[in-house]
Amino acid sequence: MRHLLSTQDLCFQDALHILDTAEEMAGVKDRQVKKLPALRGRTVVNLFLEDSTRTRISFEAAAKRLSADVLNFSARGSSVSKGESLRDTVQTLEATGADAIVMRHWASGAAHQLAESGWCSSPVVNAGDGTHEHPTQALLDAFSMRHRFAFRDGSDPATAPPVGQDLTGRHVVIVGDILHSRVARSNVWLLNTLGARVTLAGPATLMPLGAESWPCEVTYDLDEALATEPDAVMMLRIQQERMHQSFFPSTAEYTRGWGLTSERLSRLEDTEAIIMHPGPMNRGLEISSTAADSPRNTVLEQVANGVSIRMAVLYLILAAENPGKDG
């Protein structure tokens, strides 16, 4: 695996290999010394040209647990704020010895451009590009689902991790601002590859044009989607920072139609559905505090699992595929 730019690029075996490698990486957090020497001597650059908390910290923790050196770069306070181009920024970073570039960018397609333009020779990991994709988020979501589904009987995942298991037969409902969500796009493709059935649910104004042609079902009725007793309900944040016009009458109206309210949560009581959210959660808007604090909610598990997934991705890109470069 040279780059990770999109979940559409992952075949079934590639996706499963990343998830299974992450199972091995997950055990590192339980060690007295939470480190592996796999990337000792390598330098990972976190090039974040758009705000982030969870993703940036997660990639930093992942690289450090693999013993890599980490350089964190943000637009604020850098030459980017003075007008420096992405090409010049990346080439400057490579000149400092970068071995891999993890990039978040406000423009859709920026990660592909960086990887395919010849501007740099380093592997590129897409940490979110505009409204396009966020592949490691989808991978950690799939990882989290796999664990919850495999251990509903209360057994200990430390003794029997779900290695080799896909998501065949599972039904995942993704709800809300699909139009602006790179998380939704990456999840649709990855979950379909892993055998799951996906339903997108949201108001027509927040559904992308052509979504009906994606490998998923589309509904404009959340209550109808929840009545199918899905295995997972993924709530999405309303991305108001990307909205330049009104997509719904009011936040109260949105919550009534599309929020996971306490009343809607109660309808899931007789099911084993889990609740997911990529974060940050807007309590009282797309998700009630009752749902956010429910034991069904996997949001903190998703954060923890993100480190394992990103360790796996960095390892497979920098060490497993290039063993001759290890120190």
From TrEMBL:
Residues 169-316 form the Aspartate/ornithine carbamoyltransferase Asp/Orn-binding domain. This is Aspartate carbamoyltransferase. Catalyzes the condensation of carbamoyl phosphate and aspartate to form carbamoyl aspartate and inorganic phosphate, the committed step in the de novo pyrimidine nucleotide biosynthesis pathway. One of its GO terms (cellular component) is cytosol. It catalyses: carbamoyl phosphate + L-aspartate = N-carbamoyl-L-aspartate + phosphate + H(+). Its EC number is 2.1.3.2. It holds the Pfam family OTCace_N. It comes from Auritidibacter ignavus. Heterododecamer (2C3:3R2) of six catalytic PyrB chains organized as two trimers (C3), and six regulatory PyrI chains organized as three dimers (R2). L-aspartate binds at residues 82, 182, 237. InterPro entries: Asp/Orn_carbamoyltranf_P-bd, Asp/Orn_carbamoylTrfase, Asp/Orn_carbamoylTrfase_sf, Asp_carbamoyltransf, Asp_carbamoyltransf_Asp/Orn-bd. Belongs to the aspartate/ornithine carbamoyltransferase superfamily. ATCase family.
